[in-house]
Write a structure and sequence with these properties.
The structure holds two protein chains of two kinds. Chain A is an alpha/beta fold. In chain A, 27% of the residues lie in helices and 25% in strands. Chain A has five helices and nine strands; from the N terminus they run E-E-E-H-E-E-E-H-E-H-E-H-E-H. In chain A, strand 4 and strand 5 form a beta hairpin. Chain B contains three helices and seven strands, in the order E-H-E-E-H-E-E-E-H-E. A five-stranded antiparallel β-sheet of chain B has the order 3-2-6-5-4, with helices on both faces. The chains are: A alpha/beta, B alpha+beta. Chains A and B meet through strand 1, strand 2, strand 5, strand 6 and helix 2 of A and strand 1, helix 1, strand 3, helix 2 and strand 7 of B.
Chain lengths: 224, 152
Amino acid sequence: MYKAVKLLKGKSCHVSFINFARKEIAFKIVYYGPALCGKTTNLEQIHSSIVPESRGEMTVLSTQADRTLFFDFLPLKSEIIKGFTSKFQLYTVPGQTIYRETRKLVLRNVDGLVFVADSQWEKMEENAESFQDLIDNLAEQNVSIDKIPYMLQFNKRDLSNVAPAHYMDFMLNQRETRVPTMDAVARDGLGVFETLNIMAKMILASFMKENNMAMAEVPDDVCV
Amino acid sequence: MQSLTPQLGKKIDGILLNLVVRAEAEAVLLCDRGGNIIAQNTTARYHQEDNIAALAAGSFYATRELARLIGEPVFRYIFHRGEKTSLYMQTTTIDLLVVVVFGKDSNPGLVKLYGDEACAALEDLYAKNAASPEQHSETLELDASKGMFKRK
């Protein structure tokens, strides 16, 4: 049973943009995480595995060494809300420390966050620094991470030198509200669509809740 | 919530149509700071308007940050001149971005002139709307039969 939500102009809502004129609702999802953790790979896998009519072209702004310079962008669309085109706009941030200002720009008006953590033991410190960088950059925009739907993806689980998932969960998932986690091998596409599935459901649930749809249900199989 | 009512949308469409005709442009996009397209008017087919809007917003706000770093309040205009097609971007005081794509037959000076006029008209329109907001309500409903995204 999917209940209707009545939207009134001017009502407080987290969703970034509802265009009643164009019958579009836009949601912005940002993939955040340390350098070389697999953010771009997530978007590449989504781009290659999703049917063409549900996606636009992927824009990649990288250096000659294939390091993200500004952001990557992949627009997806769905008809999950009757009479509207729901646009899910996926962005990555550049993970390298020097690009902090760029990350702040990309975070503007974000609706949902996927924090991609590198599972290798030697990357734990970078994961923690990047997560704190995320919290700080949001705070500079007067946004609390606890008010935004977000989840953790533990990537590169196929490597031999990885930290246990429960250790990474203990390290990164200790805020007041625990968030969903997903093991992944983004290079092989494992856990990538599942991550997108969870994130999309969280954003939709937040959208419904903030419009007084407390009992609204989001279908489990929306992304299958 | 940021939202745009159909009534306000029609008025914006009129402003953009006026701009695209008078400036002899190929396309005009109105975007918000997040890169969302609020309205558009194109005389040529641009299939990747979402990508153009996202890149334009990113580029413009990166430039704004550059301005801040060198002690300038804001850069209001950006021109990118190409051999065949050029791009003009202008921000408004209401934090919206007007993106104009125009060909070699258009005059950059006229594009800027009419871009200025369009921005002023948009600012006036939003100010009036803020003073007496148009009411709009609509029922939204999930349609699970459509699913979300489909794998190949």
